[in-house]
Amino acid sequence: MKDTPIPHIPVAIVGGGQAGLSVACQLKTKGIESVVFERHEKFHSWRVNRWDSFCLVTPNWQCRLPGFHYNKEFGGKDPDGFMLRAEITDYLDAFVATFEPNIYEHVNVTRIAHHPQGGYVVETSVGTWTCDQVVIATGGYDKPIEPAYAEALDPTIVQMHSVDYRNPSQLPDGDVLIVGTGQSGVQIMEDFVRAGRGVHLAVGPAPRSPRKYRGRDAIDWLHDAGHYKITIDTHPDPVKALTQTNHYMSGRDGGKEIDLRKWHVDHGVELYGSLANMAGHKLEFLPDLTKNLDDADRSYVGIRDQIDGYIARNGIDAPEEPPFVKVWEPSCERTELDLKETGITSVLWAIGFRPDYGWIEVDVFDARGKPKFNRGVTDVPGFHFIGLGWLNTWGSGRFLGIEEDSAHLAEQIALQLQSAGTRAVA
Questions:
Q1: Distances in Å between the alpha carbon of 350 and those of 1, 114, 187, 297, 405?
Q2: CA dihedral 49, 50, 56, 61 (to 10 degrees)
Q3: CA–CA separation, 63 and 399 (whole Å)
Q4: 13/24 Cα distance (integer angstroms)
Q5: Which residues fall within 8 angstroms of residue 46, CB to CB, at 6 or more apart?
Q6: Nearest in space to 161 (alpha carbons), one of 148, 173, 179, 175
């Protein structure tokens, strides 16, 4: 009895989010066959790994999937608004319906390695494929980050990561400590404040941004000024660009900026520095609250200055804004906390994720385990990445840049297939 031949595909795409499916769309327009492997269902992160009140932080007009822009092909009626979770998935589903990709859902890719005769072997939970080209579109959100000392916390204190958070009712009555002040941390903070819960916030080094400034959303001003066209190769501080946490603000209620000083004054949110350790029901914080608040404000004012400069250079008539004024400063920094004494019954981790590439047996990583590439194209022929922050520009890990990035990658794949003499027509 003959062995069943292993199926072959020209291009294997791992990850069924907007990045992987954008590449599939671009390849299809070139007549190149691809298969998308998704371990859950398409757009799983948007459907499942977001809390109930989640909405975009960037305005809807930045949603520019290949040939399917929010306010053109999708017919979006609120380009300056911020889509809620269900609206985002409606937009994504409508995009996929325009080209019907070949996608295998609920399939886990367990290993990718070189094939002895060229190309790659892709082992999955439902079988093995071979392919000529591989695109890794899994993003950087595989493993939720929780520090090792979290295990030393009193077991009566409930711990949850932001990936599992949906609404305040999931956590027991009492105050909550939210660790992290990136976009997730500050928006979840507002959820608990609205629910009438006591909120304690461990403030990290994340920068913040204005929302509306001088009559427009700050993102609109920055877009017109060419800020989002800066590439990582031309960025004045590429290390900072690659390592800096996203600026925090909110799209809720039509969009707002988040000043943690005001949330302390107006809503009683208790602020601490970076969390350093925990044992039992005792917590230790670094004495960096003042520095972290000042650094966030420095970023905020810097963006305002950047917009002011653009307005002045171009002679634009725009309303003036009063200068930024701190509404509160910590008189002293509390570095120790007893959870029982303060009534904190739960800790919510919002300190991010890290990628997992342990299943890739191809030499495309640096000494720190980060993928090496130029606009997603690695030095190893036929192996590529998409959907990562600053793959090329600020918008690379977001809706704004995915059309351009996926078009570039599809073109590079087509050239490599042509050079190898591979027939890849769908």
A1: 55, 37, 10, 21, 28
A2: 50
A3: 5
A4: 8
A5: 17, 85, 88, 89, 92
A6: 179
How many Å apart are CA 103 and CA 18, to the nearest integer? 13
pLDDT digits (tens, 9 = 90+) for 137-173: 999 888 999 999 999 999 999 999 999 999 999 999 9
Instruction: Match 């900072």 to its residue by tokens.
Output: 240
Nearest to 370 by CA among 243, 184, 234, 244: 243
Which residues, including other chains, have CB under 8 Å from residue 124's CB and lie 6 or more apart? Answer: 37, 104, 107, 108, 109, 110
* DSSP-derived 3-state class of residue 259: coil
Residue 422 has pLDDT above 90, yes or no: no
d(CA 37, CA 15): 6
Q: In what order do the strands lie in the sheet with 282-285?
A: 275-279, 282-285, 336-338
For residues 109 and 13, is the Cβ–Cβ distance under 8 A?
A: no
- DSSP-derived 3-state class of residue 146: coil
CA distance 304 to 287: 28
The arrangement of strands across the sheet holding 344-349 comes to 158-161, 344-349, 175-179, 199-202, 270-272
Q: What is the C-alpha R_g of the chain?
A: 23
pLDDT in tens, 374-404: 999 999 999 999 999 999 999 999 999 999 9
Provide the 3-class DSSP secondary structure of residue 246.
coil
User: What tokens does 412 get?
Assistant: 């590079």
